[in-house]
Specification:
By secondary structure, this protein is of the alpha+beta class. 49% of the residues lie in helices and 9% in strands. The chain contains 24 helices and 17 strands. The strands form 6 sheets. The protein has a 4-stranded mixed β-sheet with strand order 2-1-3-4, sandwiched between helices. It has a 4-stranded mixed β-sheet with strand order 15-14-16-17, sandwiched between helices. A hairpin with a 2-residue loop joins β16 and β17. α6 runs antiparallel to α7. The termini are far apart. The relative contact order is 0.09. The mean pLDDT is 94.
């Protein structure tokens, strides 16, 4: 304002390929830099640190161009009102834009300011359009509609929804599994289950899954889940791990278990900050080309992950490589389909994917399945060791609270479902980091890198952290996690809840750096804050017996009733949560004479079955007093019978007969 200059805002993120291209082409060019610095106030923003700012201006870009992406390039007035926007701009177009906009600002700046005011007014009207309301009701079959929409666009040959490029969008799996486990229409429910399982199987076997190390790449550029964009994001790992765990609960298929373990082991090894217990954000798609020619590109997409046939034979041996190449679809010419590689980046290179079954390879090689499995395991270890000598992709070591909450939930659920102590330890440490370092008792902070950033958390940070604490409670039974979750929920409500229309704004009121507040109404690569909060409130209500929390959970759904009734596939996380909320409060209380054991056999049966929307409570011989008051349970009456762990299966305020037999307990769960 003092210099009367417009602002140029460039929004990107650390592992964004085209962000780095524009940085090298334009921002590091002396002539362009002079134009920019002389005529504009230039701001470079990490969208992962400030998703609020990113969301506001991405709304503008999408409203004016019909599409969006990063880097996002926005020219705006000193009052933060945009008047020109684009995504990536090559240097010639960017230079022209700088000169043209500078001239227009100097000659007709008042007109540009008027345009900015008009645009912001229109955007405020756009985001204020009703999506529901506190008095709105949900149609009976809204979840069925969401699953039928998924079926209409389902790729029944390769799995996934819609055409290439294919993004995982894990919230869809949650909706499909909710329908399978709780839906009344058996045909729709079985179809939902089959779509989820088939898609997850295809993804697990595809090149989008790092077949050597585990962990999933950002998305597939083709419909086959073969050729990925090689970036690895923490938010994908967390949600996909949970999806594979759910698939394992449904099928007990070891493919899904190994896929979940692959993700979790990769994250614990490669993405974890040992000092804090927090998880890093991402690994880049590009990396230095091993043995690249001096005059050739120094970096390339997927260079760390792809293999030539010659390299594989060199590492595994000429004779031994055949079985590996057969199983993973390796060819001398490279295995990327031409249509999936229009620039020829992967000519002569192979992206590992499972191309044949173990039995097919065993038959062709004259081996047993066990022999093939043992060989492939040894071969993968050799290749991992060799790959480890290559230049690694850039690691974004920023620790983002919401993504860490999602990842903590994945480890806690895995600890319960897979009964793995290593995952228990990881979840415990990260939960402690979130609740003691990122939360100071009054404010939850957004991110951490060599210390807390000072940026206050957004609704998504609170929602994901609350979810994580509830998952850790179900893992270890310590009621302190519930107390912390309730405190965070109170703060989230005070900062972000829309008292008039319901649901959660992404940002708090009164932030002058945001020209309008909005409520996220789409569950994309990350779930919306309201979708996560709806499930959190229901779980808290089930744990504590508090009707006010149940009512607020239902209000989350009412706030978006228009979307859920007409296009529920847009908000599958909220759709699944709202569907569960309709079933009311449901919980299992397991009483044991040993607070440490707390009915281990009952816990094993409960988490193996995977019944949605049932809170799991452990009480020991001292299960009265403060914990009893917190949980809203008359624990003096819920005790171990005849010295045996005893389960109480309850819906609302009514409980079935207490049981000490695990099989009887499972039958009761199926009746909920």
């Amino acid at each position: 304002k003092d210099e009367n200059k417009p602002i140029f805002l460039s929004v990107g993120y650390s592992t964004c390929h085209w962000c780095h291209v524009m940085e090298r082409e334009s921002f590091e060019n002396d002539e362009v830099a002079k134009l920019l610095n002389d005529n504009f106030v230039a701001i470079k923003l990490d969208r992962e640190e400030r998703p609020d700012v990113d969301s506001v201006y991405m709304t503008y870009i999408q409203a004016t161009s019909g599409q969006g992406g990063w880097p996002m390039s926005v020219f705006m007035t000193p009052d933060l009102k945009p008047f020109v926007g684009a995504t990536y701009l090559p240097i010639d177009r960017f230079s022209f834009a700088l000169k043209d906009i500078s001239e227009k600002w100097n000659s007709m700046g008042d007109k540009l300011e008027e345009e900015g005011e008009r645009i912001v007014t229109a955007l405020r009207q756009l985001v204020a359009q009703p999506r529901g309301g506190l008095a709105e009701t949900l149609d009976k079959d809204f979840l069925t509609l969401g699953c039928k929409t998924a079926s209409d666009i389902f790729d029944d040959e390769h799995g996934g929804f819609g055409n290439a490029p294919k993004f995982p969008r894990p919230c869809v799996f949650e909706m499909l599994f909710a329908m399978w486990k709780m839906g009344e229409d058996e045909s729709v429910a079985s179809d939902a289950r089959d779509m989820a399982l088939f898609t997850l199987e295809k993804m697990a076997k595809g090149g989008v899954n790092d077949q050597l190390r585990g962990g999933f790449h950002r998305y597939s550029v083709d419909r086959y889940w073969h050729v990925p964009h090689f970036e690895k994001m923490l938010y994908d790992q967390s949600q996909l791990a949970i999806a594979f765990l759910q698939a394992f609960q449904v099928t007990k298929d070891t493919l899904f278990e190994s896929s979940a373990r692959g993700i979790l082991d990769y994250v614990a090894s490669d993405m974890k900050d040992e000092a804090t217990g927090g998880f890093y954000s991402a690994e880049d798609a590009d990396s230095e080309v091993p043995f690249g020619a001096a005059e050739g590109p120094t970096k390339a997409e997927g260079a760390y992950y792809v293999w030539t046939s010659f390299e594989l034979k060199l590492v595994l041996g000429e004779q031994n490589a055949g079985m590996f190449c057969e199983y993973y679809g390796v060819s001398q010419e490279g295995n990327a389909p031409a249509a999936s590689d229009p620039q020829g980046e992967f000519e002569g290179k192979n992206i590992l994917k499972v191309s044949k079954s173990l039995s097919e390879v065993a038959e062709s090689e004259g081996k047993t399945i066990e022999e093939v499995e043992a060989y492939l395991s040894a071969a993968k270890q050799k290749l991992l060791e060799q790959r480890g000598k290559r230049p690694k992709p850039h690691l974004d070591d920023k620790i983002v609270t919401s993504w860490n909450g999602l990842m903590t939930s994945a480890f806690a659920r895995a600890a319960n479902i897979l009964e793995d102590e290593a995952y228990y330890d990881v979840a415990s440490k990260t939960a402690k980091f979130l609740s003691e370092t990122m939360w100071n008792g009054e404010v939850l902070f957004r991110n951490y890198r060599e210390g807390i950033s000072g940026i206050e958390g957004f609704a998504e940070d609170y929602a994901a952290t609350i979810c994580a604490l509830l998952d850790v409670y179900e893992m270890d039974g310590d009621c302190e996690w519930i107390r912390k979750a309730l405190k965070l929920q109170d703060v989230m409500d005070s900062k972000f809840w829309d008292k008039e229309g319901g649901g959660y704004f992404s940002t708090k009121e009164g932030d002058e750096s945001i020209v309008f507040r909005k409520k996220e109404d789409y569950d994309g690569s990350e779930p919306s804050p309201t979708g996560v909060a709806c499930a959190n409130l229901l779980r808290l209500a089930s744990l504590t017996g508090r009707d006010d929390l149940l009512e607020k959970s239902k209000q989350c759904a009412s706030a978006f009733a228009t979307i859920l009734n007409k296009t529920p596939f847009a908000m599958p996380k909220l759709a699944a949560s709202a569907f569960c909320a309709q079933s009311g409060l449901r919980r299992v209380v397991v009483a044991s004479d040993s607070s440490a054991a707390a009915g281990k056999e009952f816990a094993r049966a409960f988490f193996a079955l995977g019944v949605p929307n049932v809170a799991f409570v452990r009480v020991g011989p001292a299960g009265s007093g403060a914990d009893s008051e917190l949980l809203g349970i008359e624990t003096k009456d819920m005790v171990a019978r005849d010295g045996k762990a005893t389960a109480y299966v309850c819906k609302g305020t009514t409980c079935m007969d207490p049981v000490t037999d695990v099989d009887a307990f499972v039958e009761q769960l199926k009746k909920l």
